[in-house]
Design a protein that fits this description.
Elements: E1 2-6, E2 11-15, H1 29-32, E3 37-42, H2 61-77, E4 83-88, H3 90-98, E5 104-110, H4 120-127, H5 136-148, H6 154-158, H7 162-166, E6 172-178, H8 186-194, E7 201-205, H9 212-215, H10 217-229
Parallel strand pairs: 2-3, 2-4, 4-5, 5-6, 6-7
Antiparallel strand pairs: 1-3
Helix pairs in contact: 2-3
């Protein structure tokens, strides 16, 4: 696996989505790294990382992917270390599974309960809402990620399981969606998840689509900075 590290401070793991890479967080790294050590992997089968070991379509692909993440975290920050975690889209399901097996103090899930998409038409239809947000950088990142992706996450995303996994998580949780996210109905999903634990919170970001941390990076950076800055 290829990992990238930015900043200094308590560890914050950032997980990308399906058809993605660490660049899903390209507009958030500078702000979040001011007070945290950011760890950004290309998950197995994505970006610059090698393919996931084992059968490529095996029913335990998600568990094996989390095994690889845990092995990397144990090597990089130590097996007993507590982390914070932010995850986007398919990464939200990965993060919820990881939190069953790793000490996660606080978690933020962005664009949870998604489905896959693919280049300019899909970038504008599924990932971003405002036409002007489909800029040169967004298109370059999206095209490169789609070309590099070998892990097929859609079949895992479509099976669900996010809520049942989160029901076993007792840390802090923040849920974020763009108000125009077409891959979920956050007005229905968010209250149901937030009701699982007292203190869990959710927000809708005005004007944002699915890739909310890119399109609405300034308010997202502020929200994540405040959320992960609490009681560190």
């Amino acid at each position: 696996m290829v990992w990238r590290r930015f900043g200094a401070g308590p560890p914050l793991l950032l997980l990308h989505g399906g058809h993605g890479s660490w660049l899903h967080w390209v507009r958030n790294i500078e702000a979040l790294s001011q007070q945290r050590t950011l760890w950004l992997p290309d998950m197995p089968g994505f970006g610059e990382s090698s393919n996931l070991a084992g059968p490529p379509h095996g029913p335990n692909r998600l568990e094996r992917l989390v095994d690889a993440l845990l092995a990397g975290l144990d090597t990089l920050i130590g097996p007993g270390a507590t982390i914070d975690l932010a995850a986007f889209s398919f990464g939200a399901l990965v993060g919820a599974e990881l939190a069953q097996r790793k000490a996660v103090r606080s978690m933020a899930l962005l664009g949870a309960a998604s489905r896959s998409a693919a280049l300019r038409q899909n970038l504008g239809s599924f990932m971003l809402h405002a036409p002007e947000a489909v800029d040169a950088m967004a298109l370059a990142v999206y095209q490169a990620q789609c070309q590099a992706t070998r892990f097929r996450s859609k079949s895992i995303s479509m099976t669900g399981g996010l809520q049942s996994r989160l029901a076993r998580y007792d840390g802090r949780l923040l849920l974020l969606w763009g108000e125009h996210d077409v891959t979920a109905v956050p007005q229905d999903l968010a209250p149901a998840i937030a009701a699982i634990r007292s203190g869990w919170e959710w927000r809708l970001l005005a004007g944002g689509g699915h890739w909310v941390q890119y399109e609405c990076h300034e308010p997202v950076n502020q929200l994540l900075g405040d959320w992960f800055g609490a009681e560190v």
